[in-house]
Structures are given as structure tokens and as C-alpha cells.
Amino acid sequence: MGADGFEEPAEGWGKSRVRAAFMSDGLDRVRGFYDRFVERGAQVTQPLEKQVWGDLYGEIVDLWGVAWMFNIAAPGGWAEGNESA
């Protein structure tokens, strides 16, 4: 899944308005990807932690300037089975 973000203009190499989203209900899988990005030097812009909607969510920017969003659907959380949004 992709998303756009327009906080600032995309100027130069490694700058992008596109964000990649990694969404799953598999805690170990998503946590593993998130942790590997961070171990390799990605900048954490929002820690992976429980949010008000019930899911775990976090954001990083990788070494190439690509922003990533990670969402882990919690049982009974907002993202689990919600198709009306």
C-alpha cells in the first residue's frame, strides 16, 4: 500500500512525497521488518507503539529517504476488518 504526504516539497535525490505502508496482523513479522530497518540506520519518526485506535503503529525514514509506515492490526483494533473507512 502507498500513501502520499505533503509536509514539504520533494526536492533532490532521496526526497519523496510517497510513503510505503506495511500493514499486517502478524506482530512478529511487522516488528521484525521495523527492527531490521532501525538496526540498519533508519530514522525513527514515530516509535512503533499502541495507538488510540487499538493497533500498533510506527514510522521510519530509511537510508534512501523513503518514509515507511508500519501498522499491526490488534485483535479488535480499528484496522481489523474495518472496510467502511
Automatic annotation (TrEMBL):
Pfam families hit by this protein: Glyoxalase
Describe the location of the Glyoxalase/fosfomycin resistance/dioxygenase domain by residue ranges. 21-70
Which Gene3D superfamilies does the UniProt record give? 2,3-Dihydroxybiphenyl 1,2-Dioxygenase, domain 1
Q: Classify the source by domain of life.
A: Bacteria
What is the name of this protein? Glyoxalase/bleomycin resistance protein
Organism per entry? Microbacterium testaceum (Aureobacterium testaceum)
